[in-house]
Design a protein that fits this description.
362 residues, alpha/beta, 9-stranded mixed sheet, 12 strands, 27% helix, 18% strand
């Protein structure tokens, strides 16, 4: 897709999707469905169709009910996605550069990412894998066998992170089979799911699915959520099913202009997560994915937001603000700096209110 100037934004029609009630029967997967359900204006059909041809569209029933602008902005196609900037990349976090076998990314010594499927219940407009998701479905059996062989040959791998796509879109039978075979590898001590399912399709968190997670490696689940309005009563019920079964919950959030890039909005989200026994884990600076420039803000702006949050919410509710270095070089914390070295053993410390204090450590 070549660069193009923004022509038409898919802003929600005023008042659309604000009516609560029974969930729609099916996901929306194209521009015609968005127009039919009043989520975008028909005048933008041509350019939004072009966007949909470049980057897939899918909005689950649960997310169609949200009237909050910050929720729908994550899923509605936007003409600005056709504006590809020179610094934007097909593979911004370097999955392919660290792929020893198909379906596996081995970037850190003790853990790997297992791309269990390329399917999602929603296709986020800012996704760093947006050009891959939806293409090939689940990992083929022969590919999974090669993954298992690689894990056996590398006993330093302690943790397997299932992602995709979204691993919880797999059938309960397929997922249970994969978990059972992973659990047979003694060196695998932790299995971690990265998923959006508890918020975007909470009905999929069934008792049978939770039962499949009752295996020898410790199972952790990291839920991707960006706005407090995603945490519906149904999502809260899904969280309870998981926590009551002993599955620890973390969250990851992407800092997004037009969605959540304000201290008040993030405070609401992180408080809602903590109330539901979900520990905010990472706040990601947005990746350099193609066509996502309208979501990005500067690191300085992000640091200022984190500094504002530190004095307002407890440490349990604060995630680590991180940058995934382009090219696959790993994540690093990029939060605000509270220390300035003044000389040997002398520091100037900034408190959460902006006050300055001398400190000596010699």
């Amino acid at each position: 897709m070549q660069s193009a100037s923004p022509i038409q934004s898919a802003a929600p029609v005023q008042g659309a999707s604000s009516v609560q009630g029974a969930l729609p029967a099916r996901a929306i997967t194209g521009v015609d469905g968005l127009i039919r359900d009043g989520l975008v204006d028909a005048a933008g059909r041509r350019v939004l169709t072009e966007v949909g041809e470049a980057f897939r569209i899918r909005i689950s029933p649960a997310m169609q009910q949200k009237g909050a602008e910050g929720v729908l902005a994550q899923f509605l196609p936007d003409a600005r996605e056709l504006n590809i900037l020179p610094e934007e990349l097909v593979d911004p976090i370097g999955d392919d550069a660290h792929r020893p076998v198909q379906g596996l990314t081995h970037r850190y010594p003790d853990r790997v990412i297992l791309h269990a499927t390329q399917t999602c219940e929603v296709y986020c407009r800012f996704c760093f894998r947006r050009e891959a998701v939806g293409e090939t479905g689940q990992l083929a059996e022969d590919e999974f066998l090669r993954v298992l062989a690689y894990l056996r040959d590398h006993p330093q791998i302690w943790e397997v992170i299932l992602t995709g796509g979204d691993p919880l879109t797999l059938s309960r039978r397929r997922l249970a089979d994969m978990l059972a075979r992973l659990s047979e590898i003694p060196s695998v001590q932790v299995i971690r799911f990265h998923t959006r399912i508890p918020v975007v399709a909470p009905e999929r968190i069934t008792d049978d699915l939770v039962q499949a997670m009752q295996i020898r490696p410790a199972v952790w689940l990291v839920v991707h959520t960006n706005h407090a309005d995603e945490i519906t009563p149904a999502a809260e019920a899904a969280f309870r099913r998981l926590t009551r079964a002993g599955v620890p919950l973390l969250s990851q959030t992407v800092l997004l202009k037009g969605v959540n890039a304000e201290p008040d909005l993030l405070e609401q989200l992180f408080r809602a997560l903590i109330r539901n026994r979900v520990k905010p884990y990472y706040l990601h600076h947005p990746d350099l994915a193609k066509g996502t420039g309208h979501f990005r803000l500067t690191i300085r702006e992000g640091q200022a937001i984190m500094a504002a949050l530190r004095g307002r919410i407890s440490g349990t509710a604060l995630p680590t603000y991180v940058l995934d270095i382009p090219g696959g070089h790993g994540k690093v914390p990029i939060g605000p700096d509270y220390l300035q070295e003044e000389g040997p053993g002398r520091w100037l410390v900034t408190d959460p209110q902006g006050g300055l204090h001398d400190y000596r450590d010699l």
